[in-house]
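User: Working on a comparison across species. This one is beta-lactamase from Helicobacter suis. Can you predict its structure so I can line it up against the others?
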Amino acid sequence: MLVTGVFIVRVYAFEALEPVNPSLQQGLVRQANPGISEKCINGQRLFNTFPSILTLMAASVGCAPPDNIKLNPYVQEGLIEQSHQQDKKAYQSFLTASKEGDLFGTALLGTLYLDGKGVPKNIARAETYFNEVLKSHEAKKAMKDYVEFVSLGGTAGTHSKYGSVILATITARLGLAQIYASTNPKKAFKIYKSTLASMQSHALVLYLLLFVSLPFAGVLYVIFSPLVRRTGLRLKSLHANQFDPYIRELIGFALYKIGMAYKEGRGVKVKLKKATEFLKKAVDFGNDKAIEALRSLQ
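Assistant: Here's the predicted structure for beta-lactamase from Helicobacter suis:
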């Protein structure tokens, strides 16, 4: 993303590569997501054609089982409109959802202003929307309630009651990282890593909770959660089957961004070995854009 005006823009040159074979792309996606639907695959193709946080979210939600996430009707309508490139209609839908207090609608409004889709591009307004989501009491409370839900016997995964708010939080974080990629690449890199580490730590803790009896679940969460979080990001213990399909999409995107940062020295020193590790893991999560990046490293 290039930001004009008072911001300094750094342009990176890329060596042209032949397009990845479509059948290879489809095979990759199916391998990372067994039983994936055609609707989900089509959503991912949309993201590869028009890469942005917004199309990523449209693709991600398209991969979600209908009974596993509850979206505001206007948000759902807006994502459908966006998938048909009806950006002005999507803007009105997300705006209505946001006015109703829906945080996911607010986060998606930010992505429209970030990309200049349906509205004039406005980075400052996009940042305002993203920060509004992250500072919300509802967003902070959602993960706490979600953990309590699982500790009382709920199923691991983004439960419908909390899924929309959790998606809003992740969308806002990734949106801010995309803003800072041009103005403060070091901060962008930290956001990508912290978001990824946070999602991984919760997945590992919740995985532990599934194997203990209810009376001890809450106690073990208190014990293990800080320990897991302090270990930071560990690629070897990050597996696609730990996450719901739409969260896999987001993680694959973050892994790709981190890998590219190591590859091109964006906010961090160039480390080709690290770049290869993150890009390979992004491929495991079904991110086919990482294939081309890996090919240029070979």
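For your comparison, note: Residues 1-37, 150-158, 204-231 have pLDDT under 50 and may be disordered.

User: Helpful, thanks.
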